[in-house]
Design a protein that fits this description.
The complex is a heterodimer of chains A (608) and B (374). Chain A is mainly alpha-helical. Chain A has 2 domains: 244 residues, no CATH class; 289 residues, Orthogonal Bundle (ABC transporter involved in vitamin B12 uptake, BtuC). Chain A has 26 helices and 4 strands. In chain A, the strands form 2 sheets. A two-stranded antiparallel sheet of chain A has the order 1-2. In chain A, β1 and β2 form a beta hairpin. In chain A, α8 crosses α11, α14 packs antiparallel against α15 and α14 runs parallel beside α16. The longest helix of chain A has 35 residues. The radius of gyration of chain A is 27 Å and the shape is globular. Chain B has one domain: Orthogonal Bundle (ABC transporter involved in vitamin B12 uptake, BtuC), CATH 1.10.3470. In chain B, the strands form 2 sheets. In chain B, strands 1-4 form a two-stranded antiparallel sheet. In chain B, strands 2-3 form a two-stranded antiparallel sheet. Chain B has 16 helices and 4 strands. In chain B, β2 and β3 form a beta hairpin. Classes of the chains: A mainly alpha (608), B mainly alpha (374).
Chain lengths: 608, 374
């Protein structure tokens, strides 16, 4: 917060410090961190495995991107100063460049060392990726010396670039960021764009941008860069103004919605699936299923502040109930109900499960609750898998041949037709969004938020904390069970392995990365994480990442908690609560600075 | 305010009745299962026993003592891991979810070292030296992992709302798990074969204990003793207890709080490293998921024994280990549950839920600072 806050006010800058007036210890430390990061990424084999995923045809692949962002980011980070009110700010100059170069060079030296070791030692026994293919990728097949010198120079240059961002004006920085983001994002969306462009008869555009064998062509990249520049320069200001207007209106009347935006989204949701191909429909269906889960968890974690790590249990309840109710081959009970009737049973079971799991845990402290719900999630999965319950659930064999979902009088949604399933998912997501939105601004929603912030105070205000927490639990359970029921109809079978704890954690990552307590945030989180990287068992657009996606999820979770606990698209109130200390500090510093100014103006000498 | 006081101050609600019902139901089921077990021990063809479980048969003494011993040796391991949870909870007041992964790092590095030593021939020539080196390496690696996580992930979050470090630690756990899968390759990796004397039975009193299980029990006992000495008899331990009681006042008394917290993580990590090697000796193989379930069970053990209480952590571990190994045979099987051994892990979680329902402070009471008692 405080870094951006005062940039406008800091009009007078002190002269730049000398180029070698550095905190060398800090630089060496960050250089070593850079080296470690580069070596770690190399040893995970990302450079080799992702090399096939090309961003710009002859120039850059995801594999090399996984390396080169590190020196840039660290070179930028090491020279960044937290500007507080009342501190002298220096002009940026050579000093930043020197710092960036040294961090990059040390990092590059680390990578060079790795290349040398790869050539001379054999550590492939514990480290599975220690092989010639990695050496080949790192040294471009030109020999160890070439690779080592290349990486030291390249990394130093990238660190220099990272430091140089401080010298550029804000608009130049924004332009560069926009170009980089547009190119990387477009490249990662390649297969989806291929699919969409076919539906809209826009193949010519796709062919202009992409090479036949994959990756953007150079001219495509240039077109995108021009587009990004135009976007920032022409539309950037307007978009900002529009957003400011929307925010202002929301502050005035928080229940008002942006009608235009809503209508646009609704039209897109109805029209878009018709133009999408099989792949994109399937992708959006996965996104929708996880969005449904995430919206439910958002109510439980984001609004009521209950960290439920066994959330997958309700997904399983929904899936298995729908499977048992509809499938003709379910062992034990097999009423073969139509799907739309089964959904009522599913809701009933979800309520029962929500109450049953919720009641014992609701009084526990937050962290105990997390572990106990996790335990319940595992208990349900283990029970479903065991021989004891296999009379109903099929045990490890699962339940097969689940018919599609039929909606009474309207349509029969076959699991094999991704487009129909997508419409079904969109319908349920719409219901979930409406419910979340209405609940958030209702009496019960405010009670949840009060409980989240301070249970004792909420209780003193007359809120029945136990009941309101249980309600949150049950609403979350119902939304998850919808997702489970659609999942069962879509896949046509349920196995216990689809309901591992991993799913709970991925949903948690979606909610946290997107922004706890904010519907738009959760939707963005689901779209980016599940759509691009993929869900726990579902491939995303970047199928090459499947090996690394859980690693990336873990890293993202840590990074978000450390740097931006309110998420990408934060809930205003929640982010204020999380950064309360910083706000108070800023206010205090400002007051101090004002006092100093006043004293200086009146010519008094402050007592020591 | 304790739960007892709260429930007195408030009229009983539906939730309270449900909880009472659950407590009675669970206790009743356990007692009923034990009774059924007794019946079938007296006579498997007893009409009462066979009415509950048609395939009732008597559990032999050999089988019973086998279950007890493996339960206790596994429980000792849970206890060692639980110490780390308990200590960190005592000092920082949050559950370090990633501690199970620290244990896994210990087991993994132990596997790598002992395989290297096996290739060099040390493992077979001089087993004691080899296992000493392996223990040393895995203790160092676990300690480093614990300390580095503290520095990177937890220290910046000190003083933030309670759930934030918990979520971070879930991320750390996930990250370490998948790092292991990506760097070392997924799947199970085995330890070299143990020498014969560790695989033979050794008779102690009425028990015949397999050598490796005895080794696990002895090493766990020794580590526990060393930890007790560290915490109760040394200056460092005094500092740790003081920081657990009140960080601010401890720092006013001239205690370096940061350093004490790092020490706590280091000691917990070392214990997890020892447990990791013991896991390798006991089960002979390790995967990247090895840390997950034992980690959660060890946390349950810490809660069962009363979190923040070191003796309680060990006792909780032993209780949890033995009930997890005995309950399927003693309670579930007489109740007629088929495939009862598949529910072993579920039993561990049920024990946790049961203890939290009946006695939330754990068997030996919680020892927490005043601010945490609220």
């Amino acid at each position: 917060m405080s870094e951006t806050m005062n940039t406008d006010e800091a009009g007078v800058l002190a002269p730049a410090r000398g180029a070698f007036d550095q905190d060398w210890r800090k630089l060496v430390n960050w250089g070593l961190i850079c080296a470690l990061a580069l070596i770690f990424v190399s040893l995970t084999d990302m450079p080799d495995k992702l090399d096939k995923r090309v961003i710009v045809e002859p120039l850059l692949s995801m594999g090399y991107l996984s390396l080169i962002w590190i020196p840039v980011a660290l070179g930028n980070f090491v020279t960044r100063e937290v500007v507080l009110e009342g501190m002298t700010q220096h002009k940026k100059g050579l000093r930043e460049l020197v710092a960036g170069v040294s961090v990059g060079a040390i990092g590059g030296a680390g990578l060079a060392l790795l290349i040398w070791l790869l050539d001379t030692r054999d550590l492939s026994d514990p480290l599975v990726n220690w092989n010639d293919a990695l050496l080949e990728v790192l040294s471009f097949g030109e020999g160890v010396g070439y690779g080592a010198i290349f990486w030291i120079l390249a990394s130093a240059g990238l660190g220099l670039a990272g430091g140089a961002f401080h010298l550029l004006s804000a608009i130049a920085n924004r332009l560069l960021l926009a170009i980089a983001l547009t190119i990387v994002l477009t490249a990662s969306l390649e297969s989806a764009l291929d699919d969409i462009s076919e539906g809209f008869q826009l193949e010519w555009l796709f062919e202009a941008l992409f090479e036949k064998k994959g990756g953007l062509s150079v001219q495509g990249a240039i077109i995108l860069a021009v587009f990004a520049i135009a976007w920032v320069l022409v539309l950037g200001g307007q978009a900002k103004r529009g957003r400011a207007a929307v925010t202002a209106r929301r502050e005035l009347s928080p229940t008002k919605v942006n009608t235009v935006g809503l209508v646009l989204i609704a039209v897109a949701a109805v029209v878009l699936p018709m133009f999408l191909g099989r792949l994109t429909n399937d992708l959006f269906t996965n996104v929708g299923l996880f969005l449904l889960l995430a919206l439910g968890l958002n109510i439980v974690v984001g609004l009521a502040g209950i960290l439920d790590l066994g959330y997958v249990a309700f997904f399983a309840v929904g899936g298995y109930t729908a499977a048992i109710m509809t499938s003709p081959s379910s062992p034990g009970l097999s009423p073969e109900l139509p799907w739309w009737v089964a959904i009522f049973v599913v809701v009933f079971m979800a309520i029962v499960a929500g109450l049953f799991i919720g009641a014992p845990v609701i009084r526990m402290r937050g962290d105990y609750l997390a572990i106990v719900t996790l335990g319940f999630g595992e208990i349900i999965r283990l029970t479903v898998r065991s021989d004891w319950a296999s009379g109903f659930t099929g045990g490890a064999q699962g339940i097969l041949s689940i018919p599609g979902a039929d909606i009474v009088g309207v349509a029969t949604v076959k699991g094999t037709d991704p487009q129909q399933v997508l419409y079904l998912v969109i319908g349920f997501v719409a219901i979930a969004i409406y419910v979340s939105w209405r609940l958030e601004n209702s009496r019960i929603g405010r009670a949840w938020m009060a409980v989240r912030e301070d249970e004792s105070v909420a209780e003193a205000m007359g809120i029945n904390t136990v009941n309101s927490k249980l309600q949150a639990f049950v609403v979350g359970a119902i939304l998850a069970s919808f997702s489970g029921a659609i999942f069962a109809a879509k896949v046509g079978s349920v196995f216990e392995s689809s309901f591992k704890i991993l799913v709970s954690i991925v949903i948690l990552v979606i909610v946290i990365v997107g922004g706890m307590g904010r519907i738009a945030g959760v939707a963005a989180g689901a779209l980016v994480l599940v759509g691009i990287l993929g869900g726990p068992n579902q491939p995303g657009l970047l199928a090459e990442f499947s090996e690394f996606k859980l690693l990336i999820y873990g890293a993202l979770l840590i990074w978000m908690m450390l740097k931006r606990p309110e998420g990408l698209i934060p809930n205003v109130r929640r982010s204020r609560e999380l950064h309360q200390d910083e706000f108070l500090q800023d206010a205090w510093l400002k007051a101090q600075a004002n006092d100093d100014d006043d004293e200086a103006a009146s010519g008094e000498v402050a007592p020591a | 305010m304790t739960t007892a006081m709260r429930s007195k101050a408030r009229p009983r609600t539906g939730v309270d009745w449900f909880l009472t019902f659950l407590r009675v139901l669970l206790t009743g089921l356990v007692l009923f299962g034990l009774l059924a077990f007794l019946w079938q021990q007296i006579d498997p063809d007893n009409p009462l026993a066979s009415a509950i479980n048609p395939d009732a048969n008597r559990l032999s003494w050999d089988a019973f003592q086998g279950l007890v011993i493996s339960g206790l040796s596994q429980g000792a391991m849970y206890g060692l891991i639980a110490l780390g949870y308990s200590m960190v909870y005592g000092v920082l007041g949050f559950i370090n979810f990633a501690h199970g992964e620290v244990f896994m790092v210990g087991a993994m590095t132990g596997m790598i070292t002992s395989n290297k030593l096996f290739e060099a021939g040390v493992w077979e020539d001089n087993f004691l030296l080899a296992i000493l080196i392996a223990v040393l390496v895995s203790v160092i690696c676990s300690t480093v992992t614990a300390v580095v996580t503290e520095r990177i992930a937890y220290r910046p979050l000190r003083g933030s709302p309670r759930l934030i470090p918990l979520i971070t630690s879930i991320g750390v756990s996930f990250f370490i798990q998948n790092t292991s899968a990506v760097l070392l390759g997924p799947g199970a990796k085995s330890y070299p074969r143990l020498p014969d004397w560790l695989r033979d039975d050794i008779g102690i009193g009425p028990f015949d204990i397999e050598g490796k299980k005895l080794l696990v029990l002895v090493v766990a006992g020794v580590s526990m003793g060393a930890l007790w000495y560290l915490v109760e008899r040394t200056k460092t331990g005094k500092a740790m207890r003081a920081v657990a009681e009140d960080k601010e006042i401890a720092s006013l008394m001239g205690i370096d709080v940061d350093r004490t917290i790092v020490t706590t993580f280091a000691v917990g990590g070392a214990m997890a490293g020892v447990a990791g090697i013991l896991w390798g000796i006991l089960f002979g193989s390790v995967t990247e998921f090895t840390g997950f379930l034992p980690g959660i069970k060890a946390f349950s053990a810490a809660v069962v024994g009363g979190i923040g209480n070191l003796g309680g952590a060990m006792a909780g571990g032993l209780t949890l280990g033995s009930s997890e190994s005995l309950a399927p045979q003693l309670v579930l099987e007489p109740l007629g549950v088929t495939g009862h051994t598949q529910l072993k892990d579920a039993v561990a979680f049920l024990v946790l839920i049961f203890v939290l329902l009946v006695k939330p402070t754990g068997l030996f009471g919680e020892r927490l600072s005043a601010e945490d008692r609220a």
